[in-house]
Amino acid sequence: MNASVAIQVLPKVEGEELIGIVDEVIAYIKSTGLNMSVGPFETTIEGDYDELMDIVKECQKICIDKGAPSVMAYVKINYNPKGIWTIEKKIKKHHLEIK
């Protein structure tokens, strides 16, 4: 694993339709089988750089295929050929179980 990507898609649609399209994008990302984390503003995915770039492209295509006339995608990329810190390593200490 040499990269992580945080992606936020904003399809140009009105109201609740936005949530439905974003849900479709998240379902697609889940279907890739890669380690991922859904947040309130973006979804983070870990994997191989080239595979992640293909996923970013597909996320935008899904928005269009689901009826959005256009889509804005905000993408953050962390790439290191030698490997990256995992999502778990970065956030585990902030998500301790409440007892």
Automatic annotation (TrEMBL):
It holds the Pfam family Thiamine_BP. Residues 5-94 form the Thiamine-binding protein domain. It comes from the Bacteria. InterPro entries: MTH1187/YkoF-like (IPR029756), Thiamine_BP (IPR002767), UPF0045_domain (IPR051614). Belongs to the UPF0045 family. This is Thiamine-binding protein.
